[in-house]
Amino acid sequence: MTTRNKSSSAQAATKGSGEPHFETLAITTPAPFVFHVELNRPTKLNAFNRQMWIEIKDCFEHLAINPDCRSIVISGSGKHFTAGIDLTSMMNLGQELADVDDYARKGVIVERLIKLYQDSISSLERCPKPVIAAVHRGCIGAGVDLITAADIRYSSQDAFFQVKEVDIGMAADVGSLQRLPRVIGNQSLVRELCYTGRRFDAAEAEHCGLLSRVFPDKDSMITAAVALAEVIATKSPIAIQTTKESLVYSQEHTNQEGLDHIRIINKLNLQSEDLAQAVAAQLTKDEKPVFAKL
Ligand SMILES: CCC/C=C/C=C/C(=O)SCCNC(=O)CCNC(=O)[C@H](O)C(C)(C)COP(=O)(O)OP(=O)(O)OC[C@H]1O[C@@H](n2cnc3c(N)ncnc32)[C@H](O)[C@@H]1OP(=O)(O)O
């Protein structure tokens, strides 16, 4: 994958070509300007170990500035989308903390770790390219955090979801409690799911608005997710990236602040060659205007 700068993480090795290579993620380009990121620890049910948290952040920070990337599909390899945080790595953290005597210093270690994990999940939302999550079978704990930071969610019929953090004795702290209420817009249901860790299936997830579409199986879901990503990738990258920026900004701001924000951006963007080109294409019924890389 072409990038303008190198990974900040020592974990993301770099191939000879300058393309980053990840141990826990598999990256492919199934269509022009479309990237497919797969969680790729299938023998561990794609459980999030420390390396995976780091690599997700690195990957999306790379894709954010890669001019060859305009939209992204994220899915999981193997039996499940993800089993959530790797429980063995949680045990290792316990051991690491046991080696430190001072509580303030233990606290700093944990705080830095949570910040890293929060930034990992938020890297999907911060990435200006739309992210489509494609979920099959289990999407547990950190998986729900991850997909609620995506723009669009599809699943196969066999998918099931769990905000399972309470079952491992913790409050979710990397995004589900902040994003899930906004995504599904039903505080009563969110609280029920978060207080109980109840498993819910694809039909319920679609009904409550977590998913926009459900497919009979994983293959048809991935095909549809890539097709959607392809459609997005044909549009002006200026228009798409600004649309995402405005949608994300508006989630946390008043209508007026959102309008002020987009007005300031569009006073530049309405002068873009993309706009002139897209308007001309509409008038001449040219279905495939070609936009410059961004
Ligand atoms: C600062 C922290 C921020 C982040 C917090 C995130 C929190 C969370 O993610 S909370 C959720 C944690 N995950 C779980 O509790 C998942 C528990 N596992 C399951 O519910 C099931 O295993 C699952 C539905 C994922 C799969 O079921 P299936 O029947 O297909 O497989 P199993 O026979 O149950 O499991 C196969 C082996 O995988 C091991 N395993 C499962 N999940 C994890 C995990 N999260 N981490 C590590 N290992 C896991 C399971 O123990 C089996 O191992 P073995 O018996 O040795 O074959």
UniProtKB/TrEMBL annotation:
Pfam short name (any one): ECH_1
Key words, A-Z: Acetylation, Fatty acid metabolism, Isomerase, Lipid metabolism, Peroxisome
InterPro entries registered for this protein in UniProt: ClpP/crotonase-like_dom_sf, Ech1-like, Enoyl-CoA_hydra/iso, Enoyl-CoA_hydra_C
Biased composition (Polar residues): 1-14
Pathway(s) annotated for this protein in UniProt: Lipid metabolism; fatty acid beta-oxidation
Key word Membrane present: no
Similarity comment: family membership: Belongs to the enoyl-CoA hydratase/isomerase family.
GO CC terms: mitochondrion; peroxisome
GO molecular function terms noted in the UniProt entry: delta(3,5)-delta(2,4)-dienoyl-CoA isomerase activity
Catalytic activity entry: (3E,5Z)-octadienoyl-CoA = (2E,4E)-octadienoyl-CoA; (3E,5Z,8Z,11Z,14Z)-eicosapentaenoyl-CoA = (2E,4E,8Z,11Z,14Z)-eicosapentaenoyl-CoA
Source organism (scientific name): Drosophila willistoni (Fruit fly)
One record GO biological process: fatty acid beta-oxidation
The UniProt record lists the keyword Cell division: no
Protein name: Delta(3,5)-Delta(2,4)-dienoyl-CoA isomerase, mitochondrial
Known role: Isomerization of 3-trans,5-cis-dienoyl-CoA to 2-trans,4-trans-dienoyl-CoA.
